[in-house]
Amino acid sequence: MTKERIVVALGGNAILSTDASAKAQQESVLKTCESLIEFIKDNDELIITHGNGPQVGNLLLQQEASDSTANPAMPLDSCGAMTQGSIGYWLQNAMNTVLKENGLKRQVVTVVTQTIVEADDPAFKSPSKPIGPFYAKKELSEIKNKHPRWEFIEDSGRGYRRVVPSPKPVEIVEYPTIKSITDAGIIPIVAGGGGIPVIKEGNRLIGKEAVIDKDFSASKIAQLVDADKLIILTSKGGIFYNFGKANQKEIFDVSTKEIQAHLDKDEFAKGSMRPKVQAAMDFVNNTGNAAVIGALDDVKEILSGDKGTLIHK
Predict the structure, then answer these.
(1) Is 39:6 a contact under the CB 8 Å cutoff?
(2) pLDDT class for 13, splitting at 50, 70, 90?
(3) Which of 40, 91, 261, 295 has its CA 20 to 30 A from that of 49?
(4) pTM confidence score
(5) Catalytic site residue 214?
(6) pLDDT digits (tens, 9 = 90+) for 261-289
(7) Which of 11, 51, 129, 294 is flagged as catalytic?
(8) Which residues does 142 contact at the CB level (< 8 Å), separation at least 6?
(9) Contacts of 166 (CB under 8 A, 6+ apart)
(10) How far apart are CA 276 and CA 239, in angstroms?
(11) Could you confirm whether 159 is annotated as catalytic?
(12) Where is the Aspartate/glutamate/uridylate kinase domain (predicted)?
């Protein structure tokens, strides 16, 4: 079997479901790594990226709850870096455990990653990225009174969440390091939460209050490191047309031309499947290589081509 270089994007909700404790998230990460080990068994070069929406939102709440003159709350970009470290630690630890259990000798390393965005990206004026916990409609009034500057959206029928700006990634600062690590046979965990958003000011990189969509950053990294495939893993599986309706249809193999027609009709939810489809198409259109969107639990079947949605030219 031919070895492939594969970038895998994990959602933040694959790490945190309902229990936000460190122990519960570490248990979820261990299960995730038990699925990801299938790539290593296949002798593929694996690059792991992950979301941090639930985690960074919860951390912001903790920071604001303890904010004081002596101990000021950290800004969103620093909280993003903190979650890169904590989730990276959990993934490193779990992956090392699973590698040893399977008799595989590979090293794993987390790279705190900065992602350059444009200072004038219109996303800064139009927050759209959900972070933190879900709130019931009846809770919104009290929360808005407490945090009048926060903005909220209804997120995929599961409740309401705070939204923050989500600019598009322009450049991955550490991509040469990520490529070198991968070339050396090491498994890198990179661009957590899409990477820390920074803008260029002369020779400096300045952090911005935003959260980049991890799927767009994963697509950018996959292009920069010459990946053979981008795989976006979700909790619900691949792409469906008319999702949630009586006539919903699961799609297993689709061209970018066909799926663009469905994007143009606004068929995919903006906070969930739409950015995944757009990121996958960006990778396919710019490289000619295929992308897959599928369920984390179906990794074996995705590798064998039996599950997930394959997107190609």
Answers:
(1) yes
(2) low
(3) 261
(4) 0.93
(5) yes
(6) 999 999 898 777 999 999 999 999 999 99
(7) 129
(8) none
(9) 123, 127, 128, 129, 194, 210, 211, 212, 213
(10) 10
(11) no
(12) 5-293
